[in-house]
């Protein structure tokens, strides 16, 4: 007997201690005295602070998710915490105050007391239906502009472990920026998706890309189906298929379009798409463009997914109750805002049970997870053939651009029906060569252990950095093995303050707020790289104010 998840979170939350283990059993009485019927079949260990309940923090576990220990070959540890009640109240108050002052400033702008910099409808169009949505425009000019300096910072170097930023200032409260002519040197880069450190201008990848440029040039000037199909593209696709362990693959010049333009080619009217609630915008757009019926299940919640599958099988299409033409489950490998990893073994089990198709987006997980760097399928030790459509991008771990789709009995169909294949310009040759060279290094085909070393270094850096932040008392989200590390900030004022203060310490970070996240869950997102040294990670986790090194470019 032990404490059940229900009692720990509902009846007696004070029973949580610094290290609590949810014991699993089918039916019985937990130590709180309540009778429950349980279907947990996997022990789930959660790291908690012994005083976190005193801070008003509640634990948001995945207790509603069915765990099947037989599907997992190693522990699967993820941590999420609900926003503390006091922090949530203060956050809403902060947004409320900003909104009140926003309306006051709009009143002053209306009477020309304050200058209005925002785009407006032309005077002759004042009776037209507004081109801009009023509230979004309100949010932009009154809230976003206050912290706009934290985004779109121009860099002037390779986005490696360290980078150089162009210094800029604003004299009109972030409406416009002016470059000072100086460069902020050696900023530790914690924002780029450079997981394996292949974003570099020296080494084997850079040399190979230069050779490809000299041989093919930079642009192709045609689509693949016309005269833009180069031998280097064929070589790339064969290599990707071998890397993934699938029959064939297809490469595209843009990662976003790989999702948004190919999902409509795979599903249509009369089809059902079951999408995780935290799926990327490219997946959401692709699903909407397909014309399919879309139903959303709770993030990484297998009970929610299974319920939708059961309802789909039992009831069929609305009104007619005919069977769905096909059911497509759409998930990601690593969720880029939460740092969580898909419960792929359970998704595959459900997919097989209910005869659905599975679309897996490995944009962030390919190269970054698994002993061989082959993504979340490799991470869980699954058979690639269990995933019907394997999608990923070359923009993260490979230091390049574009995306791919791999599978069986699928690629020939996409070559004839995908809008990206038929109408988009072919991938740039030096970009294709960058992917080929970096992928061969990961696979060890270059005759060195550099690829294996980088995969191991990324894993070590991820474990170390997450442990450091957790020991310092920060609330971080996601899986212990995920190189995406969201650290919660919550309040709107902290978004701008955190980004600016980190830059003062020569650390470049990404801060994220509403509408990219829930309004009370603003965060800073760190992306760990194999190129980061232990000293860099220590500097980030224990920052001190130091003079920023700048150089004059005039």
UniProtKB/TrEMBL annotation:
Tell me what gene encodes this: sptlc2b
- Signal peptide span: none
One GO cellular component assignment for this chain's record is: serine palmitoyltransferase complex
Alphabetically sorted, this entry's keywords are: Acyltransferase, Endoplasmic reticulum, Lipid metabolism, Membrane, Pyridoxal phosphate, Sphingolipid metabolism, Transferase, Transmembrane, Transmembrane helix
Main location group: endoplasmic reticulum
**What PANTHER family does its record include?**
CLASS II AMINOTRANSFERASE/8-AMINO-7-OXONONANOATE SYNTHASE, SERINE PALMITOYLTRANSFERASE, LONG CHAIN BASE SUBUNIT 2B
Subcellular location(s) of the protein: Endoplasmic reticulum membrane
Q: Where do the coiled-coil regions begin and end?
A: none
Record-listed E.C. numbers: 2.3.1.50
Q: Which Pfam families match?
A: Aminotran_1_2
One GO BP on record is:
ceramide biosynthetic process
Q: Which residues form the Aminotransferase class I/classII large domain?
A: 185-539
The record's comment on protein family reads: Belongs to the class-II pyridoxal-phosphate-dependent aminotransferase family.
Which InterPro entries does the entry mention?
Aminotrans_II_pyridoxalP_BS (IPR001917), Aminotransferase_I/II_large (IPR004839), AON_synthase_class-II (IPR050087), PyrdxlP-dep_Trfase (IPR015424), PyrdxlP-dep_Trfase_major (IPR015421), PyrdxlP-dep_Trfase_small (IPR015422)
Source superkingdom:
Eukaryota
Q: What is this protein called?
A: serine C-palmitoyltransferase
Q: Which GO terms describe its molecular function?
A: pyridoxal phosphate binding; serine C-palmitoyltransferase activity
UniProt membrane topology term: Single-pass membrane protein
Q: Which cofactor is essential here? A: pyridoxal 5'-phosphate
Q: Which pathway does this polypeptide act in?
A: Sphingolipid metabolism; Lipid metabolism; sphingolipid metabolism
